Amino acid sequence: MKRTHVMTSAAVASILLISLSAQGGGHTWVFNELFSNPDGTIMFIELREGTGFMCQEKNLAGFIVQNAVPLNQYTFPTSLNCPVATCCTANKFVLLATSGFAALPGAPTPDYIIPDGFLNLAGSTLHYSIYAQMIYGAVPIDGVSSLSSLGAVTVNSPTNFNGDTANVIARCKVADFNQSGSVNVTDLLQLLASWGPCPPPCAADTDFNGIINVTDLLTLLADWGDCPP
Ligand SMILES: [Ca+2]
Ligand SMILES: [Ca+2]
Ligand SMILES: [Ca+2]
């Protein structure tokens, strides 16, 4: 009898999930990755479909991403374009980013544009309506590192709903490793100190190949001098 009861419950749960999946919603997204430059003009929040099997979680319109302190709130104006016949949201990403991020060469096109300074670089709490939250600490601001949902510092990998992804460098010049507004001897010393294998995230690795070598040095020399005002 007990076994039958368990199977029945499982069957009911399956039917419910299939029903929910077919019907579609927008509540299974979780926070995945946060990124910013020092002044918050280049920033992104990456969401991930959290169950791995919900195919029609496209109805984001009206859902809210909220940062607690400062209180910043973004309401999704539209839902994702994900037709039942050709599209599945499971395990996909949604990219919210500033217009400065969108303007970066090679950056994936954000699905939604959020205001500058949306995140608190010192840390705060994010909420996705009532369905997900992420308590985060200091956001790395070296222009290449991002913060994962588990609090790990990693190489940024913004991915939009279409699956377009890239590693971006958010600096006035690629080789301004310390974000000082100038590429000078300080950056050169940082590069030399990291010479050789440099596992990610590695601020001086200008081409993300895991090693600091002459290619990165040539990039630095080409970048030498002050950033444009
Ligand atoms: Ca990512
Ligand atoms: Ca510098
Ligand atoms: Ca390199």
Set out the fold topology.
Blueprint: H1 2-23, E1 29-36, E2 43-49, E3 64-67, E4 72-75, E5 93-97, H2 99-102, E6 112-113, E7 124-128, E8 132-136, E9 145-148, E10 153-155, E11 182-183, H3 185-193, E12 196-197, E13 211-212, H4 214-223, E14 225-226
Parallel strand pairs: 5-6
Antiparallel strand pairs: 1-2, 1-9, 2-5, 3-4, 3-7, 7-8, 9-10, 11-14, 12-13
Residues 32-33, 46, 157-159 line the site of one calcium ion.
- Radius of gyration from the CA trace? 21 Å
Give the topology string: H per helix, E per strand.
HEEEEEHEEEEEEHEEHE
Number of helices: 4
Q: Please state the overall shape, judged from the principal axes of the Cα atoms.
A: elongated
Give the CATH topology of the largest domain: Immunoglobulin-like
| CATH class term of the largest domain | Mainly Beta
Which ligands accompany this protein? calcium ion
Helix amount, in percent?
Answer: 10-25%
CATH architecture of the largest domain: Sandwich
Major β-sheet profile:
6 strands, mixed
| Overall number of domains | 2
Average predicted confidence as pLDDT: 92
**Strand portion, in percent?**
15-25%
Structural category is: alpha+beta
Number-wise, the strands total 14
Architecture overview:
- By secondary structure, the protein is an alpha+beta fold.
- The chain folds into 2 domains: 29-155, Sandwich (Immunoglobulin-like); 182-226, no CATH class.
- It is 20% helix and 24% strand.
- The strands form 4 sheets. Strands 6-5-2-1-9-10 form a 6-stranded mixed β-sheet. A 4-stranded antiparallel β-sheet has the order 4-3-7-8, with no helix packed on it.
- The N and C termini lie far apart (76 Å).
